């Protein structure tokens, strides 16, 4: 996966989902309500940004140690494999982060779908692929010069399930 999303997009989305301010995570305060947001942020920073694990931990206020993987990233990985609701929630967060980054860069929906299609099938965010496939199909239909606007619109709506 191409890991080019700036850390501030990831931290802002994780904080928004947990009702926190982006300054809450790196504050270094050890509060129980910050544990899972920190874990998720560190996990997503490693997944979506060019940050090393050491720097991801520092960015979320975790103290880098020999047990970083066990303490921060592994609990998220284990929970993703066992809890489908949590996996769906994290995938939703990943989509929001990718969308925010794409919107900030001005990437077209078609290019966004192409990038999502390039995700590794074993990635925890690979569930986004079906969305990307749908968007790519709808964009292709809408760009077809052989269809009238009304026909293209109707076909694209049918593809996206509306």
Number of structural domains: 2
Mean pLDDT: 76
Q: Any low-confidence stretches, pLDDT <50, length ≥5?
A: none
Mind telling me the C-alpha Rg? 18 Å
User: What overall geometry do the principal axes of the alpha carbons give?
Assistant: elongated
Strand content: under 5%
Q: What profile does the largest beta sheet have? A: none
Helical amount among residues, as a percent range?
55-70%
CATH architectural name of the largest domain: Orthogonal Bundle
**Assembly annotation:** single chain
The CATH topology annotation of the largest domain reads as Chromosomal Replication Initiator Protein Dnaa, Chain: A
Number of helices in the DSSP assignment: 8
Strand count = 0
Which class of secondary structure composition applies to the elements? mainly alpha
CATH-assigned homologous superfamily of the largest domain:
DnaA protein, C-terminal DNA-binding domain
How far apart are the termini? Answer: 30 Å
Task: Report on this structure.
- It is a single chain.
- With 162 residues, this protein is mostly helical.
- The chain folds into 2 domains: 1-106, DnaA protein, C-terminal DNA-binding domain (Chromosomal Replication Initiator Protein Dnaa, Chain: A); 107-162, no CATH class.
- The chain has helices spanning 7-17, 35-48, 53-59, 68-82, 84-105, 109-117, 128-142, 149-160.
- The longest helix is centred in the middle third of the chain and has 22 residues, at 84-105.
- It is elongated, with a radius of gyration of 18 Å.
- The mean pLDDT is 76.
């Amino acid at each position: 996966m191409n890991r080019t999303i700036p850390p501030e997009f990831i931290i802002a989305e994780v904080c928004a989902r947990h009702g926190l301010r982006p300054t809450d995570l790196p504050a270094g305060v050890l509060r129980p309500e910050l544990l899972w947001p920190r874990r998720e942020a560190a996990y997503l920073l490693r997944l979506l940004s060019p940050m090393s694990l050491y720097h991801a931990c520092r960015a979320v206020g975790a103290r880098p140690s020999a047990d970083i993987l066990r303490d921060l990233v592994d609990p998220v990985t284990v929970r993703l494999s066992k809890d489908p609701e949590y996996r769906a929630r994290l995938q939703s967060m990943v989509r929001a982060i990718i969308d925010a980054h794409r919107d900030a860069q001005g990437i077209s929906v078609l290019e966004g779908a192409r990038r999502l299609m390039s995700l590794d099938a074993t990635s925890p965010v690979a569930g986004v692929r079906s969305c990307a496939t749908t968007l790519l199909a709808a964009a292709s239909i809408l760009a077809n010069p052989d269809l009238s606007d009304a026909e293209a619109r109707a076909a694209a709506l049918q593809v996206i399930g509306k």
